[in-house]
Amino acid sequence: MTMQPSLSLPEARLPVFGVPVYDLTWRDALSYVNELTAQSFGQTHVAFLNANNANLMMSDSDYRAALGRTILLPDGIGVDLASHVLNGERFVANLNGTDFIPAMLSYMDTPRRIGLVGGRPEVLAEAAVNFRRHAPWHEFIAISDGFFDKVNCAAVLDDLKAARLDILLVALGTPLQEVWIDRNIRPEHARLVVGVGALFDFISGQVPRAPPWMRRLRCEWVYRLWLEPRRLWYRYVVGIPVFLGHVVRYKFLGPPRHPGGKDPAPPSAGAAE
């Protein structure tokens, strides 16, 4: 069971498809995760919700339940649009993981031990090198690439415990990473755990970022589709209409009778989940 720390949770939440997403400025979000890492006990799982992840949680009850036990941050123009339609207000900031994690590492001036799990072996190794260049006052420890048994993973968990980490970054892709974290990672493994998706690919330089002007317009997904049309066409060409369909249904019909799982209650500070 994951223990939430005694630190009070942010109050502002805007639900997207029945799951509460925290509406924070960059400064407030960075300050909050920094405080979480400074706690001497407990554990918090942070995840990011974008349109693709929202689609997945509508059909995957385990994933939806895992997200319900996280601090969930908004990622991308899709969930911003959904919140505008469903809640009457947009999120104040786009806290996408690709930008948020490097910013978080820069913001934390106290040296931390940070474990990395996921990615191909060469991607993991290069990501660790580039993380060290980005924030050399932290210690980055490559625990395991992503090619391990996600069910019988005692060896990886033992390595995590032995590493005495403050922060764990898990790059196994959604929904696998959130479900794996929820089922396996405990306070003795790290105080702050973040599912980071394809972040290691970007940090390692294996996948280029979109030009700054596209990122400012929040259209990096267009650039990624252009780079990898065969792999990503379904996510965007099919996924965007599916996502908009969920938004329309929630707006006019309310939640489905049996969504991917029961709408989870938001995590509460100091309680075992």
Automatic annotation (TrEMBL):
Taxonomy, superkingdom: Bacteria
One Gene Ontology molecular-function label: hexosyltransferase activity
InterPro entries attached to this UniProt entry: WecG_TagA_CpsF
Keywords attached to this entry: Glycosyltransferase, Transferase
Keyword Coiled coil appears in the UniProt entry: no
PANTHER family xref list: PTHR34136, UDP-N-ACETYL-D-MANNOSAMINURONIC ACID TRANSFERASE
Name by which UniProt lists this protein: UDP-N-acetyl-D-mannosaminuronic acid transferase
Organism: Ciceribacter naphthalenivorans
